[in-house]
Design a protein that fits this description.
Layout: E1 2-11, E2 14-24, E3 29-33, H1 40-47, E4 55-60, E5 63-64, H2 70-75, E6 78-81, H3 93-102, H4 109-119, H5 121-125, H6 136-148, E7 154-158, H7 166-183, E8 186-191, H8 194-200, E9 203-208, E10 211-217, H9 218-222, H10 225-232
Parallel strand pairs: 3-8, 3-9, 6-7, 7-8
Antiparallel strand pairs: 1-2, 1-4, 4-5, 9-10
Helix pairs in contact: 3-4, 3-6
Bound molecules: adenosine-5'-diphosphate and magnesium ion.
Length: 234
């Protein structure tokens, strides 16, 4: 579904991604793992059109999206949940979800809200509260629900585990799995937390200093002790 090919991105002289190639199959979860500074956030920001590549391409079902503005990319069905959650803390839970549904490619606001509350019942009971009053786990649920309210085909999730307790994280990950099965969602899951990501992903890519050093089935990478030790600090 998504094909990244020879993608090079630089900030001035500093190369953040160096000829990165990877594919994300439809209806699956692909994890992108790597240490701090590996280029993970740069990759998702480039896919969503916020950063321009210097070379290479990003294709969605064969269509080159690498020169499109972020709003065009969003309208093609790619939703980006940024690092650090990206909810508007000045707004209520429901107002955040309404904003998310504005980018929707179908279905009304009411439907998007109902789907969000079905997915994360905690959000329903907190719907009138300010997003600032939520716990870290609830904020991440809201950020994901807000991304899903746009009814994307592809969800880009940048480090959802940051600052979350293991149990909340497991809960969120199992919801993701069911969305892939039930709604045909495709997920690109960026994670420094390799253990949780490998347990939920179908495939995984390991980035190190802007280069792809491994791309395989997640279960296979999870069993590769040398690789985990060298690049992911196990
Ligand atoms: N806006 C920026 N300006 C300059 N350098 C940046 C910027 N964003 C990221 N970088 C650099 O690019 C590299 C990759 O960063 P990033 O994509 O944030 O990695 P990760 O998400 O894996 O931690 C790092 O060396 C980082 O310092
Ligand atoms: Mg990052």
């Amino acid at each position: 579904m998504l094909d990244v090919s020879d993608l090079t991105v630089a900030y001035g002289q500093a190369v953040a991604l160096d000829q990165v190639s990877l594919t994300v199959p439809e209806r699956s979860i692909t994890a992108v793992l790597g240490a701090n500074g590996a280029g993970k956030t740069t990759l998702v920001r480039t896919i969503s059109g916020l950063v321009r590549g210097r070379g290479g391409s990003v294709r969605l079902d064969g269509l080159d999206i690498s020169r499109l503005a972020p709003e065009r990319v969003a309208r093609l069905g790619i939703a980006h949940v940024p690092e650090g959650h990206g909810v508007v803390t000045e707004l209520s839970v429901e107002e955040n979800l309404r904003l998310g549904s504005m980018a929707s490619r179908g279905g009304g606001v009411r439907q998007a809200l109902e789907e969000s509350y079905e997915l994360f019942p905690r959000l329903r009971s907190r719907r009138r509260l300010s997003a600032a009053s939520l716990s870290g786990g609830e904020r991440q649920m809201l950020a994901i629900a807000r991304g899903l309210a746009a009814h994307p085909r592809l969800l880009l999730l940048d480090e959802p585990s940051l600052g979350l307790a293991g149990q909340v994280l497991q809960q969120i990950m199992s919801k993701l799995r069911s969305l892939v099965a039930d709604r045909g969602l495709t997920v690109l899951l960026i994670e420094q937390n390799a253990r949780s990501a490998l347990s939920v992903a179908d495939d995984a890519v390991v980035l190190a200093l802007g280069q792809v050093v491994a791309h395989d089935r997640a279960a296979k990478l999870a069993a590769d002790r040398d690789l985990l030790g060298t690049y992911l600090g196990f």
